[in-house]
Write a structure and sequence with these properties.
heterodimer; A: alpha/beta; Rossmann fold; 4 domains; six-stranded mixed sheet; 17 helices; disordered N terminus; B: mainly alpha; ABC transporter involved in vitamin B12 uptake, BtuC; 2 domains; two-stranded antiparallel sheet
């Protein structure tokens, strides 16, 4: 089956022509990746490029048969049906969201699902002993009986790695391992990876932090739009080179044209700071100032985890975080947005990035979802006028072009794009002056995207102030008038869209990373 | 939303999907399926009990026996739709019954406080205390986010103990005659008896309660006028309605059922007082859930609490109110129960919460929240009630009765889920 070429004998992993299709979307198209024994191989790409999907294919989260292509590991073709299968072969993946049970001890977490036991009875001595041994390897000096919840994120990351080592890992996959780590912890982690390399453990590193990637990796594979673009050798790696390769996609005419008519400043945020709801000493948003003018579409660019959603939700009725400080001004006057109700009554609306969890009542129909944020608009003395409500629902269904049999269709049965239109309908009916749209086109097809952009244009033409958060840079460049760049809870750049480019935005982010690092 | 949006009311999609008789019938079958099940169960017992079930005396009894369950099922519907549960309602109703007995009979007040023993004053005190108990539990659930299961489980134990404590382990009664009227009384016949068949030799006399008959007829006429008006308003705004034949058939069937029931009650002692209270409450709760923003928000927080909160709904305050309402209804139910027994016993109300919860689930509410109808809960309670009544008349042992009820609950929820998954 395998036709391993002699000079590739030191290749531990080959992924050949991997194609993975989701309903309506080709997430991966003929992706190729090869990892040599004992190398650190980085995978970089924009959000949604397909990096995580590729790793899920590799680790068996998407079982063999649900994708096309071959995985050749240690010279034999593999058909993993589950994570367990891949772990048996020594492939261990550590996800961005740590998979630790907070109220179990470090030792229990390390051997979770892989308990040191005889006939189902846990051998606690061996568990602690083994845990101590792997903790030593990752340089974590903690009692194995300590509860995971009592140690910091950096140490938790090390416990995850210790857990991987306990499974005799040969290929370690790390998905954004340093996203939530401090600079010091990140540096320690990267050193640890270099140490593993010396012991012959191969490592796949997925990261947005290009400075880290270029520091530790031997080779870098760039993925864009579900395709492998190129694999760079250590000698060729420069940040510029990576950025060009990451974002260099031809811009098509995917955005409806519009002539902006921009007026005075409507919405202003001054010195906005927010702390993490659980780790109360961690500042998530660090003194943000921004403004949006009448009829203006302003974008916030940034990588995942840069704090954009946290910022927007904290503005909207303190729906995120603690110790929220700062001022919100509408037409130069300070307003109270401390509850969602107050924010809505001042004319601020926030359409969430996660419509299923935060945006819609999926078991109810379009009509009820449309009016939920503005029930006053269809009721008198608390009594709903059901015909007025039906009129409103039909009206917005038409305006936003929701495709459904009627307004009585259950929202949970609609496609992603139509669900997004219901979310928009809901907030349009609340008639806000300021509209914050968080990832308004996430997970929806190109046609529906175009329709959403058209709605945004119409709203701007009506004189609304619109703030768009998006991880798709071409989208921001296509629909906004001005772009703020956010990184690690700070605004690190602001530019008129006419002067902006993906490279410039990326540079602003990378520059900020560099500043923090040094 | 005035003239501007009205013209485009009949959107192409709505026009493209005209309501056929068959389609409308199917939609209605699901809606009225439960009522159909109730009628079938009643007919079955009418057959197996040799015609006892539909005797006027027995129908009146079914209403009286289940009144307190239905009163609490109304509140429980809100609680369950909001995604919570209340296990304390049985104990709370028992405690309030005990409190009512102590206020009116047990405690000897000094003359200046004697007004507390007045049945109306005592009844109001009981309602307020019931609401306060519900509010206290609701406060812990809403603002401290303690799961309702745990808060009300604790409440169940606490109020079970409290009733035992204030009654000192004794039954207390009898109640003043005015208080007994709540459960045992019938509305006065302000119209006068209508004699259809006068008493004579060999023929059973048939005398109808005039006021009951009048109220029944007024209610039916009112219902029909209301549905005609609703239909006319829909048509005027350009919306399609169900086919006229179906509309007429539905109204005629429901009118016939109500008139039949009225006739049955009228040929016994007339409309029981408690049915008047129940009727007003049911109508009120249907209005609350279907038309009030308050009701709409309950469905929203049950369907997706996070989305509701991000739509500006004060989920905590709403939850608090729901439990306060539940408490007041449990208090009312406790008084109805005590008045019916004509004494408060330490064991009163125990286990009732399970009958109430079963009624709501048989009525089609979802244990996950967000789904459920008042009419369903009421019919669910009647299904359980008719099962109890019919099996008792048949002389089926209590052990078998319990098992059959368990199977019915399971079957009702199973078919409901099965239907939903198929749809």
């Amino acid at each position: 089956m395998t036709d391993t070429i002699p000079e590739m004998r030191d290749t531990i992993l080959q992924m050949r022509d991997i194609t993975k299709t989701f309903p309506g979307v080709k997430a991966l198209q003929n992706v190729n990746l090869d990892v040599k024994a004992g190398e650190i191989h980085a995978i970089v790409g924009e959000n949604g490029a397909g990096k995580s999907t590729l790793m899920k294919v590799l680790s068996g989260v998407y079982p063999h048969g649900s994708y096309e292509g071959q995985i050749i590991y240690n010279g034999e073709e593999c058909a993993f049906r589950s994570i367990r299968d891949s772990e048996h072969k020594g492939i261990v993946i550590i996800h961005q969201e740590l998979a630790l049970v907070p109220l179990l001890s470090i030792a229990e977490n390390i051997y979770l699902g892989n308990e040191r036991a005889n006939a189902g009875i846990v051998d606690w001595d061996e568990t602690r002993e083994g845990a101590r041994a792997v903790l030593r390897k990752v340089g974590l000096n903690e009692d194995p009986d300590t509860l995971v919840t009592n140690i910091g994120t950096g140490k938790q990351q090390l416990v995850e790695i210790a857990k991987a080592l306990s499974k005799e890992v040969k290929l370690l996959i790390l998905d954004e391992p340093t996203a939530s780590l401090s600079e010091k912890d990140s540096a320690a982690l990267l050193d640890l990876l270099l140490g593993f390399k010396a012991q012959g453990i191969s490592c796949i590193l997925i990261s947005h932090k290009l400075n880290e990637v270029s520091k530790v990796s031997d080779r870098i594979t760039v993925i864009r739009d579900g395709r492998t673009i190129e694999t760079l050798n250590k000698a060729d790696i420069t940040e510029d080179r990576i950025i060009t390769s990451m974002v260099g996609r031809p811009l098509e005419d995917r955005y409806p044209a519009r002539t902006p008519e921009i007026g005075e400043v409507v919405f202003e945020v001054k010195n906005w700071s927010v702390y993490h709801p659980q780790h109360r000493d961690r500042q998530v948003i660090k003194g943000i100032d921004l403004n949006v003018r009448k009829g203006e579409v302003v974008g916030i660019a940034g990588l995942m985890g840069s704090g954009r959603t946290e910022f927007a939700m904290s503005l909207f009725g303190k729906s995120y975080g603690v110790k929220v400080t700062g001022e919100v001004l509408l037409h130069g006057k300070k307003v109270d947005t401390s509850t969602v109700e107050k924010a809505v009554s001042h004319g601020i609306a926030y359409a969430t990035e996660d419509r299923k969890t935060f945006g819609l009542n999926l078991i109810d129909h379009i009509k009820h979802n449309t009016t939920l944020a503005n029930l006053w608009g269809v009721s008198r003395w608390g009594v709903i006028d059901d015909l007025a409500e039906l009129d409103v629902a039909n009206d917005y269904r038409k305006k936003t072009n929701i495709r459904s049999s009627s307004v009585y269709q259950t929202v949970g049965n609609l496609s992603g794009g139509n669900q997004q239109k219901v979310v928009l309908s809901k907030w349009l009916f609340a008639n806000p002056e300021v509209l914050i749209l968080d990832e308004p086109t996430r997970g929806i097809d190109v046609g529906a995207k175009y329709e959403i952009y058209s709605i945004i244009n119409q709203l701007a033409a009506q004189g609304k102030a619109i703030l768009v958060i998006s991880s798709e840079m071409p989208e921001l460049l296509g629909i906004t008038d001005r772009v703020y760049v956010m990184n690690e809870g700070r605004l690190v750049g602001e530019m008129p869209t006419a002067e902006a480019s993906q490279e410039k935005i990326m540079r602003a982010i990378v520059r900020a990373e560099g500043k923090v690092a040094s | 939303m005035t003239t501007e949006t009205a013209p485009q009311a009949a959107t192409p999609a709505e026009a493209a999907a005209p309501l056929s008789i068959w389609g409308a019938l199917q939609a209605n079958l699901r809606e009225y399926g439960l009522l159909l099940v109730l009628i079938l169960i009643m007919l079955f017992f009418q057959w197996t009990t040799g015609g006892v079930l539909f005797k006027p005396l027995n129908l009146t009894n079914i209403v009286l026996q289940n009144s307190y369950i239905i009163v609490m099922a109304l509140g429980m519907l809100l609680v369950i739709v909001a995604g919570h549960i209340d296990l304390s309602v049985g104990s709370v109703s028992g405690f309030i019954g005990a409190l009512a007995a102590m206020l009116m009979v047990g405690w000897k007040f000094p003359p200046e406080l004697a007004f507390l023993a007045n049945p109306i004053v005592a009844g109001l005190i009981c309602l307020v205390i019931g609401a306060a108990i519900g509010a206290a539990q609701g406060y812990l659930i809403a603002y401290y986010r303690i799961p309702s299961f745990i808060v009300t489980l604790a409440g169940m134990l606490i109020f079970k103990g409290l009733s035992l404590s204030i009654l000192a382990g004794q039954s207390v009664g009898p109640f003043p005659a005015e208080f007994q009227l709540l459960s045992a009384g019938f509305i006065p016949d302000f119209i006068g008896a209508i004699t259809l068949i006068p008493a004579s030799q060999g023929v059973q006399p048939l005398v109808l309660h005039g006021a009951t008959l009048a109220i029944g007829i007024v209610a039916v006429v009112g219902m029909i006028l209301l549905s005609i008006r609703t239909r006319a308003r829909r048509t005027a705004r350009g919306y399609e309605s169900e086919p006229f034949a179906l509309f007429a058939a539905k109204n005629i069937v429901i009118a016939a059922l109500v008139l039949f029931f009225t006739y049955m009650l009228a040929s016994y002692k007339g409309l029981p007082n408690v049915l008047v209270v129940m009727g007003i409450l049911i109508a009120g709760f249907v209005f609350l859930t279907k038309r009030l923003t308050f009701g709409r928000r309950i469905y929203a927080i049950g369907g997706n609490p996070k989305a509701a909160a991000l739509s500006g709904i004060k989920t905590e305050r709403l939850t608090f109110y729901i439990f306060a309402i539940m408490g007041a209804l449990a208090a009312l139910a406790g008084m109805i129960y005590a008045a019916r027994l004509n004494s408060a016993t330490p064991k009163a109300g125990q286990g009732l919460e399970l009958d109430v919860i079963a009624a709501v689930f048989i009525g089609g509410a979802s244990a996950l929240g967000g789904v459920g109808q008042v009419a369903g809960a009421v019919i669910g309670a009647f299904i359980m009630g008719v099962l109890n009544n019919g099996m008792s008349i048949m002389g089926i042992n209590i052990d078998l009765q319990q098992m059959i009820k368990g199977v019915v609950l399971l079957a009702a929820v199973f078919f409901d889920l099965y239907n939903k998954n198929k749809a």
